[in-house]
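Think of the structure tokens as a kind of shorthand, similar to the way a musician reads notation: each symbol stands for something richer, in this case the local conformation of the backbone. In the example below we present two proteins back to back. Begin with the first one, reading the sequence and then the tokens, and try to describe in your own words what changes along the chain.
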Amino acid sequence: MKIRVLCVMLTVLALFLCACGGKSGSGSETSASPDSASKASPDTPPTTVEPTTEHYLDQSEAAAEKVELLAEKPLKSESKILDVEELLQNPELPTGCESVALTAALRYLGYNIDKTEIADNYLIYDEDIFWGFAGDPYSDDGAGIYPPGMTNTANYFFELNGEKHSAVNTMGYSLEKLYRLIDNGYPVLVWTTMDFWEPNVIDTGYYFGDEEYFWYDNEHCMVLTGYDLNSQILTFCDPLEGVVTCGEDEFEAIYNEIGKLSITIVEAEKQ
């Protein structure tokens, strides 16, 4: 009798161990990227600030005109790298890449700002990813924010801190135009994917103007800090990995597929 009971107990234990192993294996196989966590759907409501009700692009027309002119000028150099400080989002802001990328750009421009200050005091929150951050950047379940909302966030910061600079939404700009901005010393925030993986689309039907865009759960924002036309290598300050590089063709394919999402920051222009 004791032997039969012992056999049953050993069988149950073996089945339990097999079940645990199976769950672990299936979880790793479904991950979009082995090194990066995915982001939540932007349908997740904000957890810290009520959604804004008025949606409009808050940027200086004079600054936007300046950026347009700079983006058409011939390149002065075939390679350029801006000395943007490496700044990592973890552990404080696991889904706050946009806020940390903006902070790195602001530090490059001379602002003394802590890593979490944008998320704490300036980041606009909204259920619409184009106009605010959906979710909570302090949470693993946060989603993100697209260029119009980050442009407004940056300009809200400048409004309260001297208005020496102005952010401009550069959605739709080609890579060549972004190179010209960097060539003139201006950092550019670009939307890409974690580890430069293929965008993993999980939702569609997001509109800015007449254009439709999608949401992808490996959404990521970095600072494009440099280009080299000869080697065709681009340099980034990645809030997850630090300073990283990527081939021009590889990045351009992702950048174009997502919808050419970017913003830049220039000196404020009097209107």
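Once you have a description of the first chain, move to the second and do the same.
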Amino acid sequence: MAADPKPLAPDAAKTEEGARNVLLSFARKIERGALDRARDMLDPASKARWSQAQWTALFDGLSRISVAVPDGRVEGAAGSSYYAVDLTISARDADGRPVEMKGPIVLRRANDIPGSTAEERNWHIESFELSTAGS
């Protein structure tokens, strides 16, 4: 299990490297079982999709959790930048059988434009979907 990524300088945090740091931090929280902290990083719609109990139940009984985070790339649109990848969570269930969940995750940051807040100018999870492989 890898450690959390190191903090970046402010200019670097605005780049693809910054998006990747946020994504890796989310993945590491899941791998370490810090599920509440990982859920705290989700966007409001994803939090509504998975209540605290439902989010915890997704991982209940799983061991050897590993989160694969392939490289993505930054794309821009209408004052914002987006970073999207297909995330894969692999684990073992209580009987030792492999479990795989996959889904797209999109990070967003508002570009440095008048009217945007400091929070909006930081990379954050904009959307996250997850389904069991094969469903």
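Compare your description with these statements about the second chain. The longest strand covers residues 80-92.
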